[in-house]
């Protein structure tokens, strides 16, 4: 495995040396949580989400993308439309850091060879990892487990981007994250002795959503768009 990893890393470095065009910039917006605590509205930003984004443009239709986003996830039963949740009154607020990597496809040619105006809707998907604290509820009190976990997931984003100048690109997107975890909201404690404190729908994992804008700066030589 170490040899394979080294070969892949070497090939990646060679490709990076081919002077494609890159983008680096910032993301700013809001986040909301969808799970067993709080509101289930799909797009309802509650807390600030900020981070950085990097793109490697491989063609006029696709690019590789990496992002790091920090946010505070919030769940409040009092803000739910479900009367049972309102009566229960659970609440949590947790700081979380996400790393995501994947591929972005544009619906129209977004050709950075041109100095003219570029515009296109796009979709993005890949893999994500959210680092978050663990906690549980006991007698309606939130209790920290004093540990953290990584929740892996699949980002599903729909956005729109446009060139502001030759070097600046502005985007707006809504990006849902389906996670393979059901413990972001404290409904599934880790410890075996806490199993009796589990609650909620065990068949549905947690989601969270980022809604916001991006502003990126392009650099590097004009891309030699390849067939892959």
What's a concise summary of this model?
This protein has 228 residues and is mainly beta. Helix content is 9%, strand content 54%.
Strand order of the largest sheet: 1-2-3-4-5-6-7-8
Please give the radius of gyration in angstroms. Answer: 20 Å
Give the helix proportion (percent range). Answer: under 10%
Poorly predicted regions: 2-19
**Main pleated sheet:** 8 strands, antiparallel, barrel
Give an overview in words.
With 228 residues, the chain is mainly β. 9% of the residues lie in helices and 54% in strands. It contains two helices and eight strands. It has an eight-stranded antiparallel barrel with strand order 1-2-3-4-5-6-7-8. The longest helix has 15 residues. The chain is elongated, with a radius of gyration of 20 Å. The N terminus is likely disordered.
Keywords:
disordered N terminus, 228 residues, 8 strands, mainly beta, 2 helices
List the helices and strands and how they pair.
Elements: H1 2-16, E1 21-34, E2 47-57, E3 62-76, H2 83-88, E4 91-106, E5 119-138, E6 141-163, E7 168-179, E8 207-219
